[in-house]
Design goal:
Blueprint lengths: L2 H6 L9 E5 L4 E2 L6 E9 L6 E9 L6 E7 L6 E2 L1 E8 L2 E9 L4 E10 L4 E10 L6 H4 E20 L4 E8 L3 E2 L4 E6 L4 E7 L3 E22 L3
Antiparallel strand pairs: 1-10, 2-10, 3-9, 4-8, 4-10, 5-6, 5-9, 7-8, 11-16, 12-15, 12-16, 13-16, 14-15
């Protein structure tokens, strides 16, 4: 083992990132709209919580602009920060993050301007994560897009962390190579997770035909 690989394998904090809760179902809309809610996630009371929202769009006349994502918009009204986003044709995949989300069964609300879009969204909460926010907590983001029957993305994740991906495609997704979090139809939003091991993690998905796709990912840092 080389020095660099050995350093990547050393836990950076006393906490280990762990899954707290995943939305019981993703949400989507089959009409062109300017907003979408998901009320299917219950955030627990564990220490050092973070919320990840997986958001995807397809649009016939151009992708939306000015997107915002909020947790508990009628209560704590906490704003998420975009971690990473990429477009592939008329498809967009993105990840959004929030440290210390308020606990409970709340609403995730996405809204946007410009063009209407066909959206899909999911939410996942983890515990044991760094509470700084931004690229310190949601590190080593990566993105790629293509036109093929398979999507694949590498995300480097350190030991004690958890990496997450989100993919959006023009056809049905299946067979994720990592633990699935959601596979939401119509817009075909998929997301999965994997425990960090001090090396690059490959997130792969099979697509029913050779079509446009977009994929993003990041490493959730322990803290």
């Amino acid at each position: 083992m080389g020095i660099q690989q050995a350093l990547l394998s050393i836990p950076s904090a006393s906490f280990v990132v762990a899954l707290d809760a995943n939305a019981t179902a993703g949400t989507h809309n089959t009409s062109g709209v300017t907003g979408l809610d998901n009320g299917n996630l219950t955030v627990g009371a564990g220490l050092n919580r973070v919320l990840i929202v997986q958001l995807a769009f397809v649009a016939d006349t151009g992708l939306p602009t000015g997107t915002t994502v909020k947790w508990d918009p009628v209560g704590a009204n906490q704003s998420l920060t975009q971690i990473v986003s990429i477009d592939g044709g008329n498809y967009r995949a993105s990840l959004w993050g929030l440290v210390n989300p308020t606990s409970g069964n709340k609403i995730i609300r996405a809204a946007w301007g410009g063009n209407t879009a066909y959206p899909a969204m999911n939410g996942t909460c983890f515990t044991g994560a760094n509470q700084t926010g931004g690229a310190t907590t949601f590190a080593r983001s990566a993105s790629t897009s293509g036109n093929s029957g398979a999507a694949s993305l590498n995300v480097t994740s350190l030991t004690g962390n958890i990496a997450v991906d989100a993919v959006c495609s023009a056809d049905v997704l299946s067979a994720p190579t990592r633990t699935q979090l959601v596979n939401e139809g119509f817009v075909n939003l998929g997301s999965s997770r994997a425990s960090g091991a001090g090396s690059a993690i490959s997130f792969g998905w099979t697509i029913a035909s050779a079509v446009d796709w977009a994929q993003v990912g990041c490493d959730i840092v322990a803290g």
